[in-house]
Amino acid sequence: MTDMPAPPQRRLWHRIPVIGWILWDLQRDFRGNAPYAAMIALLLLVLGVQQLGLAAIVLAAVLATPVIFTVLIIIAKG
């Protein structure tokens, strides 16, 4: 018989109805589900712009700032 890898453990955030399902799928198969997660994030940004206007773009940029700084630090370290 072939040894099957153990399924990943369910965490507390996996119990959140929609976000948890997406995170669970990404944890199981990142390469197959990453484009879908990116499309969901883009759709949420578009819907936010429809509802809030420019404020949604500003909020998205503010939320992305720590990620961009982390990427820049990793690139600078080599």
Give the gist of this structure.
It contains 3 helices and no strands. With 78 residues, it is mostly helical.
What's the SSE blueprint?
Blueprint: H1 17-28, H2 30-52, H3 54-77
Helix pairs in contact: 1-2, 2-3
Number of strand elements:
0
Helix content: over 70%
Intertermini distance: 43 Å
Give the rounded overall mean pLDDT: 85
Describe the structure.
The model has no long low-confidence stretch (mean pLDDT 85). The chain has helices at residues 17-28, 30-52, 54-77. The radius of gyration is 17 Å and the shape is extended. Helix 1 (17-28) runs antiparallel to helix 2 (30-52) and helix 2 runs antiparallel to helix 3. It has 3 helices and no strands. It is mainly alpha-helical and 78 residues long. The protein has one domain.
Which descriptors would you attach to this protein?
78 residues, mainly alpha
